[in-house]
Write a structure and sequence with these properties.
It is built from nine helices and ten strands. With 271 residues, it is of the alpha/beta class. The protein has a single domain (5-260), classed as Protocatechuate 4,5-dioxygenase, Chain B (3-Layer(aba) Sandwich), CATH 3.40.830. The strands form three sheets. Strands 5-2-6-1-10-7 form a six-stranded mixed β-sheet, with helices on both faces. A two-stranded parallel sheet has the order 3-4. The protein has a two-stranded antiparallel ribbon with strand order 8-9. Helix 1 crosses helix 4 (114-123) and helix 5 (142-151) packs parallel to helix 9 (226-234). The longest helix has 16 residues, at 184-199.
Amino acid sequence: MTIPTDSAMPVVFIGHGSPMNALEDNVHTRAWQALGTRIGKPRAILAVSAHWTTRGTAVTAMAAPPTIHDFGGFPQALFDMQYPAPGDPLLAARLRDMLAPLDVRLDHEWGLDHGTWSVLVKMFPQADVPVLQLSLDITQAPAFHLELGRRLRPLREQGVLIVATGNVVHNLRTLRWGSQAGYDWAARFDARIREHLRKGEVDALADTSRWDDDARRSVPTIEHYLPLLYIAGARHEDEAFEIVADGLEMGSISMLSVAAGLDVAPANAKP
């Protein structure tokens, strides 16, 4: 059953940072928790994570997606964490049909990687909302991902929350361990993206042809930036982006998190 347009789910991009955020209580994780409370309980969640890159597009289609611990060198407590949210094979099949003629593979091997569950464990700790993951076709240009986000918009009216996770600035080679001070180039690029979002300049977000040295340092590889384009595409043109978390961690990791459509309370939101 389609939920009325005035009860559409928002769209959210989370700068997920370190997997340790799943265990920690900090200003960012508290912002994610508050966001989940504000949104209410969706019918389902479609997650787009920087950590599932493929050739071609795929969507998880299993009834019980496994929790993937796709990292190393962290405390055992992080490896012990599980996020046992159900999947939704019927919704995955509907999504495949909705995106035709794009060939979307129904995947039964991946699951929920840490880009997804380390955020959702804070936003929806009960793990009682079905979760699908949509892969990033790493062979495609940024404009493809922005347009695919636009094609996902109808899901919002069906009670599906679109959550994309990555980092606007993500340069692991330049990390300053234990430092909260950002590099000047990282701060400038982060501010540029924030300004594009404020002005609703979504096409500019996907135009990487004019990126300068600040951009190239901030985005040495594209996979952590691409999820933002899905949210930019899935946003309705009359919706403003709202910053829900911000800041640079360890010099070159942006924690910028934004949402659009939060001013519309979904029909099943918590009071």
